[in-house]
């Protein structure tokens, strides 16, 4: 009889729901009434800590002018006077850029919190290797998609890097770090020379300086259906996986070399951009030479308008005329006529009126794009 009782008790314990144990069962055996319900928290094991690829991570840090551990295979660079000069000058340049990014971080956390709660994919056309601003405006996104004319290049090999190469890296980054944007014609030489052969190394420098760690770099080929195939050598795209130790969250960036002009945009690019989910995709662009204002880039402009739920840009992006019907627009900063090197048709009279007669325009305390004062246009789908 005792054995039967024990079996019954054990069965009752086993089939009790795991989240709520009726722990009065022992008392009931003694004839006591105890119906107390105790909550037992479900097990929630911590996610394993992500790990960086040390070769990639240390290469990114050295190129960025940042120290590596003493036992790193590339630690020898830190003893070289030219690298020490590189570090000192990069620290100064980055301090200027970091000041701006800190202000964007504050704005993103406060004014754009609603956007960032939903943002999964970031669509950034005409980007160059500008990861820094996309990641600052959209710090919670899972995948950053950059599209530009520049080539991907290859993963830097520090064993073959010359000391003079560090001058080339500073030259390639100088204008962006001081003024917030790259100049397309300068990148034709800054990213294509004996020291730098594309955007990968610049992307890695930004990631290192923003306290991200590199997990992998994979060369990709963009197929006509918008999918990617891994490649053994540099190709039309590169995918970088990275993380921040504080968050322990894996993210991805895909840079695709492509021409977004209507006459040259390929089927793969159109299929890829067309696959973005409008409910979770955000757009970003700045300093893009007013490309989407005219009739030569209507394809990418339509994707920006139709495949995003929010867009952050300066006045060189999508004209206000195309945004106002389907988006609620919030303005920051100021609006001035485009630089003289651009056509007078780039001037937006309706946006000018809105900026100068709208008391709800918000201040902007950093440079964003070509002009000073700078414009920041935030569009949320209605």
Helix count, DSSP H or I runs of 4 or more residues: 13
What form results from the Cα inertia axes? globular
Report the β-strand fraction as a percent range: 15-25%
Strands side by side in the biggest sheet: 6-5-7-8-4-3-9-10-12-11
User: Percent helix among the residues?
Assistant: 25-40%
Spans of at least 5 consecutive residues whose pLDDT stays below 50 are: 1-41
Largest sheet: 10 strands, mixed
Order of helices and strands: HEHEHHHEHEHHHEEEEHEHEHEHE
Q: What is the average of the pLDDT values?
A: 89
**DSSP E strands, number:** 12
What class would the helix/strand composition place it in? Answer: alpha/beta
Distance between the termini: 72 Å
Radius of gyration: 26 Å
What does this structure look like?
With 382 residues, this protein is of the alpha/beta class. It has a domain at 54-312. It is 35% helix and 17% strand. The protein has helices at 2-14, 25-29, 54-63, 81-110, 113-118, 131-137, 165-179, 184-190, 200-209, 267-274, 298-306, 320-323, 349-357, and strands at 20-21, 38-39, 121-125, 143-148, 213-222, 228-230, 237-243, 251-257, 281-285, 310-313, 327-333, 375-381. A 10-stranded mixed beta sheet has the order 6-5-7-8-4-3-9-10-12-11, with helices on both faces. The protein has a two-stranded antiparallel ribbon with strand order 1-2. Strand 5 (213-222) and strand 6 (228-230) form a beta hairpin. The protein is globular and about 60 Å long. It starts with a helix and ends with a strand.
Summarize the structure.
35% of the residues lie in helices and 17% in strands. It is of the alpha/beta class and 382 residues long.
